[in-house]
Fold:
Amino acid sequence: MPRMSPDEERTRQLRQHKQRQRDALRERILEVSRGIVRSEGLASLSMRKLADAIDYSPAALYLHFRSRGEIARALREEGNAQLRAAFAPHATLADPAARLRAMGRAYVEFSMAEPEMYRLMFMEPADAAGAADTAMLSVFADAFAALKAVAPLACAQALWANLHGIVALELTGATPPATPVAALVELSLDAWLAAGSGLAAGSGD
Amino acid sequence: MPRMSPDEERTRQLRQHKQRQRDALRERILEVSRGIVRSEGLASLSMRKLADAIDYSPAALYLHFRSRGEIARALREEGNAQLRAAFAPHATLADPAARLRAMGRAYVEFSMAEPEMYRLMFMEPADAAGAADTAMLSVFADAFAALKAVAPLACAQALWANLHGIVALELTGATPPATPVAALVELSLDAWLAAGSGLAAGSGD
DNA sequence: GTCTATAGTGTGATAGAC
DNA sequence: GTCTATCACACTATAGAC
Structure:
């Protein structure tokens, strides 16, 4: 570590301070954005509203984010991390079927707890934000492989699609509320994991 | 039928003519709207663009439709009818499993052939337009009942969700294109219709 | 019934002063 | 780095002339 003169030391501290302020404001912007999106949805996140909420001018936002889309992108990444965290406790279950069931339930529970975040992550046009977590798909596929499915990856995608469909129809209100979400989830998990089901008859992959 | 004087007859004909013109314009509006929605999506349907395309002023549109939403609503109804028509040839299949497979495939084929219509019908906030066709659900449920499923309606909803999930993830681009849609559909139909699957173990309904 | 003209409101993003 | 002011646009919907 090189010695510094008192002057050098002082300017270094100043720079660090500035940097901390910058980071703090960026974090504040994300924090408020998160609140707006979670309660009103991405469509309601406007640069003006955001600026008002943090008591800065709209122009100030563009010093920390290139565009509105980049804020959305950051929030989406937060959501992905949140979902991964929700999976973590179940990823270590030894029985692959139990693992799939637990993670499937966790997935849907996340979606119901954070519907607007879920929308942002999986129901918004993909744009440049890169497709959703492949991590989740991998864990699903590994479990199906352990179950000796012929096409583990395809099974993982299809089960994911099943869960997503349940959630998506619920969130858009397209479905009549005849059957509670939890029941649809259990039924679907049964269909995909029941002994003698299509696990050995998969096509493609 | 009451006799009319020649004068009465003439005004009657005039009225009919006017009515036909009215209907024709309304139909024309719908026609152009349909074209815009099918090629660019509902979001791109603006009253200005629509007015330009039919060579009328924006104000004229409001003489035939209360609002933009009402146009969307009419198009949605058209889509529902189109989907019902796509189902019709398969609804009479005697074997319930074959019936479900055929209708499931027809559903997904419709969605891939008319992605923007599908979006409008099933991926747009439900608003006042009333939830999507319950007719489809009924046919699905009937087939599951014929298969002696414990919870036919719940099975129908869950299978629908499965198909919708496949389509929705494809349309938003959230899914990696590892497995073609058709393969996911076959795999899902297998899971739901394989002998020994969860049909007898359903919960809820 | 149809038009022109416009009200009224929203948006994302930027220029230029300080 | 922050602000004010504004550009350039989109939108739905309506008032009032003809």
